[in-house]
Amino acid sequence: MTGDHTLYGGTCPNAPRARAEVCSRPHCVIGSIAMSAAISRKTLLAYGSLGFPIAVLGYPMTLFLHPHYAGELGLGLAAISTVLLVSRMVDFVTDPLMGWISDHTRTRFGRRKPYLLIGVPVMMLGIWKLFMPEPPVDIWYMLLWNTVVYLGWTIVVLPYGAWGAELSENYITRATITATRQVYTIAGLIGASIVIWIYQEWLGRSDPGEVLSGIAWTLLVLLPVSIVVLLLLVPEREVSTPPRQRAWWRELSSMLRIGPFRRMVYVALAIVIGEASRHAVLVFFMEDVLQAGDRIGRTFILYYLMGVAAIPLWQYLARRYGKHRSLAIAMTHSALMVLATAFLGAGDYNTFLVFYVLKGASFGAFAYLPLAILADVVDVDTAVTRQKRAGLYFAVFGAIDKIGIATGMFIALQVLNLTGYDPQVDPNAAGLWMIRLEYAVIPTFFFLLASFLVWNYPLTSERHARLLAALERREARAV
């Protein structure tokens, strides 16, 4: 994640100690981002570019896949929720293992790049089979190809995230790198929304299966192009402290003893479970409660545009009050906007759109701030263990994210199934109220829980600056 003082021209005269201190004056924040990591604008933009297709892929995985397999292919909600949970639980093993392997890899091409070359073809094969299945299909088919997609995702995204954390060691620079990647991520989500909008409102093809097919073809073009740009234009930094050769589960045990990391695990779980439970029923909410299923594409375009527009606000708040306080504010804002939709019904789409777009303002914050905070946690680990384990940290965080998504979706779909809701028939009153409850009330609880947990997060910018100064002094003595 990038943002150095050299990014947009020159160094900052108000930042006397390059890595330990960053000028707090608003006009210097982007320009004064750490003389320690002179990241060019070209490198910054090239690094973030992979976020675009990754976001396009994540969109249908949580929104359209289960409505398609349940409504058009006839699989039960209970069975689908179990598949989603099992395939994500596999990641709890593969993600830390991939992070450990990536951290301990040494090749002439770097530690991270080889795995991106391996993972993209795996991901593309899974997308082809999962998004464009040829009926009839059964639950085992869905389980197999869902797992393949997530395996490819793991092989690509975890080294990619660790690579970004290693581009700079500066607190503010990392926030800017993360924000840049998040801009690409939101751009990818907007791109996916445009595909959906074209299919639904231009072509009149609003079935989830048709939407999935359009997104699949988009991904099969974008993924190889993005990976070539990334590999050719972004260098890897040399790591001065090679990791010790220990089993990855022992590494994981030592990581969980780092207090700030444990806190962020709890925060991330609360955020992701809340969002996943909402996403699991969003298509059903718009189709059956609001009776506006053909307007999903335009809704998300406006939502993500608001997310992009609000990123500078969250960057300012992160500089002014700290990343953790900014995240807490964003989660509280999200809770209020989601709760406001609890009593909406048929014909209330315009009211829903207002609250939904307002919630989009906080989307960018809780998508990028946790990762920026995690990059700072890696420095705490380096100070304690004298190792560079960014890959493993992002792997564990990625596994937690996936398990949170699977848990939230499992709970939401299982509860819907218990109420007798069937996507293939008109819902009863109990089913409609349960959709409202799961869309509004349950996420609100988890968002407020995340806000409470992160408000007094211990690793502030001041403490991080002192930590970096200590690390620099230690490295200087070792030279």
Distinctive features:
single chain; 479 residues; mainly alpha; disordered N terminus; Growth Hormone, Chain: A
Short description:
By secondary structure, the protein is an all-alpha fold. The protein has one domain: MFS general substrate transporter like domains (Growth Hormone, Chain: A). 74% of the residues lie in helices and 0% in strands.
Description:
This protein has 479 residues and is an all-alpha fold. The chain has one domain: Up-down Bundle (Growth Hormone, Chain: A), CATH 1.20.1250.20. Helix 4 runs parallel beside helix 6 and helix 7 runs antiparallel to helix 13. The protein is globular and about 70 Å long. The relative contact order is 0.15.
Helix tally? 16
Please write the CATH class name: Mainly Alpha
Helix content: over 70%
Regions with pLDDT < 50 over 5+ consecutive residues?
1-37
Rounded mean pLDDT is: 81
Radius of gyration: 22 Å
What would you give as the CATH superfamily? MFS general substrate transporter like domains
The SSE order reads HHHHHHHHHHHHHHHH
The CATH topology: Growth Hormone, Chain: A
Q: Per the principal axes of the C-alpha atoms, what is the gross shape?
A: globular
- Output the structural class: mainly alpha
Largest sheet: none
Share in β-strands: under 5%
Architecture per CATH nomenclature, i.e. the level-2 architecture? Up-down Bundle
Strands, count: 0
Number of domains: 1
Distance separating the two termini: 27 Å
Set out the fold topology.
Elements: H1 41-48, H2 51-63, H3 65-72, H4 77-103, H5 113-131, H6 139-165, H7 171-202, H8 208-233, H9 248-255, H10 259-289, H11 296-321, H12 323-339, H13 349-385, H14 390-418, H15 429-455, H16 461-478
Helix pairs in contact: 1-7, 2-7, 2-8, 4-6, 4-14, 5-6, 5-8, 6-14, 7-8, 7-11, 7-13, 10-13, 10-14, 10-15, 11-12, 11-13, 12-13, 12-15, 13-14, 13-16
